[in-house]
Design goal:
Distance between the termini of chain B: 57 Å
Strand content of chain A: under 5%
Strand content of chain B: under 5%
Distance between the termini of chain A: 44 Å
Helix content of chain B: over 70%
Number of helices of chain B: 12
Structural class of chain B: mainly alpha
Structural class of chain A: mainly alpha
Largest interface: A-B, 77 and 110 residues
Oligomer: heterodimer
């Protein structure tokens, strides 16, 4: 149960450089009126980040392209997206995805 | 005076609970990913205390994986402190965008509260908060408490899962068979579709509307960001792909949305 001094330095410095980008915009940008183009640009950010994270998760692993065939995640995401679009139930969609991938991993191929 | 004070406290407690309730899908995902992260960090040579230090102070899944892998890569030589911290900074730089996108919704919250809320910002808490705000389901009163409920649920489940994983490291079998690790990509996919189906109009005043005010722009942003993220992931090491893909796709959407609007006006 020991903490090495180098690790302590790494963690504290990493925590500080992580806290800056997390905290500073919320404190500063909530006080000033942003120009319309910047608000439009920021408004597009969530969809872009979601799509980027999703595609990276589904299609790559460690900087390599995953095969399209035999990739159960690509199948399991379909009911998730259909249920989310139709019902707007996040929990229902996620549960359906977990169930689908568990079935595919245990019983398919 | 004390009456209105206790009434406000009551509202805050209710809002805290509502925030915790919308965090349920995140908690499920964090419990499984966090467990895996605890195992990975422990097997990369960190002590249980070091894993928990990182979990509680850094609180960033991908960055914790990065730190663990860089420590492994450096062994048995000296730890590359500057390189690790620099990489963590780059990996977590995307939080700038998330924090900036939330800011207009928290303009009535005290600055110090915004600071505390921002400390626990993650990809997952952001997308859930954003979806709820956009759908007008977060009242102005108690907004900070609502976000704190969401944040703390995610934070505590992450820390608990990290601890469990670190302690269980060496005893675990195959947790993938249960499929819980799929909860996070599933959440990204579901929230993306909910964004697209919510663009038609929302009750809340919308200080940060999607570029072009609609699904037309969102339908361009999503594929551009996805394609770029994958291509960049294949050619650039590290986690640059998310931030570059996001910057480019949002800019494309802005240009497209503006020219589309001016074309319709003329």
């Amino acid at each position: 149960m020991e903490i090495r001094p180098e690790i302590l330095i790494i963690v504290i410095a990493s925590a500080l450089v992580t806290a800056g980008p997390r905290v500073i915009p919320l404190i500063l940008l909530s006080r000033i009126e942003l120009p319309a183009w910047l608000r439009e640009w920021l408004g597009a950010v969530p969809v872009a980040i979601l799509a980027a994270l999703l595609a990276t998760e589904l299609l790559t692993s460690g900087g390599r392209l995953l095969p399209l065939a035999g990739n159960p995640a690509l199948l399991a995401i379909l009911p998730v997206m259909a249920i989310a679009y139709g019902t707007r139930s996040l929990l229902g969609a996620v549960a359906a995805g977990v169930l689908t991938i568990a079935l595919l991993r245990n019983f398919a191929a | 005076m004390s009456d209105s004070g206790s009434q406000q406290n009551g509202q805050a407690v209710v809002a805290l609970g509502q925030g915790a309730r919308v965090a349920v899908p995140i908690v499920l995902g964090y419990l499984s990913i966090g467990f895996a992260a605890g195992v990975v960090q422990r097997t990369s040579g960190l002590s249980v205390a070091e894993v928990m230090l990182m979990s509680l102070l850094l609180y960033a899944g991908s960055a914790q994986f990065v730190v663990a892998s860089l420590i492994v890569a450096a062994a048995p030589g000296p730890l590359p402190v500057a390189a690790v911290v620099g990489t963590v900074f780059l990996v977590n730089l995307r939080h700038l965008l998330l924090s900036a996108a939330l800011a207009p919704y928290f303009s009535r919250v005290a600055a110090w509260k915004n600071g505390l809320l921002g400390l626990q910002l993650t990809d997952e808490t952001f997308v859930v908060a954003w979806a709820e705000l956009l759908r007008g389901r977060v009242p102005d009163e108690g907004r900070a408490a609502w976000m704190a409920g969401l944040n703390l649920s995610a934070y505590l489940s992450w820390a608990a899962a990290n601890l469990a994983g670190a302690l269980a490291s060496g005893y675990v079998g195959d947790t993938r068979a249960l499929g819980f690790d799929f909860a996070l990509p599933a959440m990204f996919g579901a929230l993306l579709m909910m964004q697209l189906s919510a663009q038609r109009g929302s009750g809340e005043r919308d200080p940060a509307p999607t570029a072009g005010n609609g699904r037309a722009a969102a339908l361009i942003v999503a594929p551009v960001a996805a394609l770029l993220a994958v291509v960049i992931a294949l050619v650039l090491p590290g986690q640059w792909n998310i931030i570059i893909a996001t910057l480019v796709a949002a800019s494309v959407a802005l240009v497209f949305g503006r020219s589309w609007k001016s074309a319709r006006k003329s």
